[in-house]
Every structure is written in structure tokens, then in C-alpha cells.
Design goal:
alpha+beta; 40% helix; globular; 4-stranded antiparallel beta sheet; 9 helices
Amino acid sequence: MSALDQKQTSEQVRPPSIGSRLADLVRFYAILADLESKVSAARRLAECSGRMDWPKRGLYFFFEDGEKRSDTGNGPRVVRVGTHALTVGSGTKLWTRLSQHKGQSNGGGNHRGSIFRLIVGTALINKNGLNFPTWGIGNNADKAVRSGEVDLERQVSEVIGNMRFLWLSIEDEPGPESRRRYVEKNLIALLSNYDKQPLDPPSTTWLGHFCNRERVRKSGLWNQNHVEETYNPTFLDDLEHLVAGLKKVA
């Protein structure tokens, strides 16, 4: 267990009440509004490229058209939180990870390199009655298998590419002591409705309802890890400090 996890265990004894979780969610979205006022308006992933100025490492927050908050005020709700390079020695950069989710310039992609793409693909299969029996099978696939999956990869690229996102630069080193890891896991646990009284629940038409992963359906997020965990409210102090330290983009 890392020092950050030990800190969380010692400070957080019991799950937050519904009232305190609501207050923490309101606080989080206020921090996110401050972030957006400093970096730029949320961008659609399809409109982004590696030629833009990206930090080396950071967190990202995705929004989805039609997914609105209902308990914490007006505005879009976060549907996915993510980061990258958490393994010691990993050199993956923020844009590298985002581009894996986005897919290729021809509209294709590789869902075996992006769990986000994989789970969105399962939802499209179930919603539209599609037949892609090799989807999600194995960590690698030969050319023939990938060719048979191209149509669905393109549909996934369209769905994810249409999502807007914000990002927060956190230039720390990969590993169990990563600040990004600490904030990410706590934030997912805060946003997740998994086995909790729902707050800012997904709309009835949210694509995630068709996902084959229970944790996605019950959490209301395109996330699987940490959705069932208890968060430490003090992580918001860390997040607020990170955002407060940013310089506003001219």
C-alpha cells in the first residue's frame, strides 16, 4: 500500500453520507469550472491532434452530449475520468493515451489498446444488435480479425470523438505514489453511483446502459476500476490546490 493510500485509510473511516457526498460533488464541479476558465473550453476529442500543446502527464475528464447533472446544478456531468503512465517506468504521454481513445485519422482504431473503446463498443453491439463475435477477445488480433471489426471501430471513434473533455496537467512520475493515481481513484469513487443512492444519474438514453459491464451500468460512468470504492473527501483539497496553481491561458 502506498503512502497516499495509507493516508486515505487512516483519514477516511466510514463512507460519506448522501448529504456530504452531494456537497463534495458540488465542490468538485466548482473546481472543474475553475479549471475550464483557466485552460480553455472543453474540446471535442475528434477536433484534437498531437500538434496541440499538451502537458506530458495529467488527468482528463470526459463529457457526453445529453448527459446533464440533475442534483448538483446545471451543466454537463462527467462520464469518464482517466489518466495514464501509472506503472513505474512507463513513458506514455497524455496525448498518446487520448489518441488511443480517439482512434485513427481514417476513423478506425484499436479497442484492444483502449478499455474505453472496448466498453463503448460492447454498448453499441447490444443497443443495435450488431454481430462482432471477436470484439474484446484477446490482447492482440491478426489482420483478418481486425478487418472484420473496422465498421465497429469507426462507430466507436464517432461516439468518443464527439465527446468533449477537459484536462489537468500533473507532471509527476509514474508509480504507486503518483498524485494522478490518488486523485483519479478518489474522483471516480466520488462520481460513481455504484451501489449508492444515485446523484446526477445518467439519462435514460445514455449509451452506457447497454454496456456489458455491470460496473459501467451501475456507476453511470465509462469506468470500471474504483467505482465500488470509498473516497477520501480530503482529495478535493489536493485537486483544488492543483487547479488554483494553474496560470490562466491568455
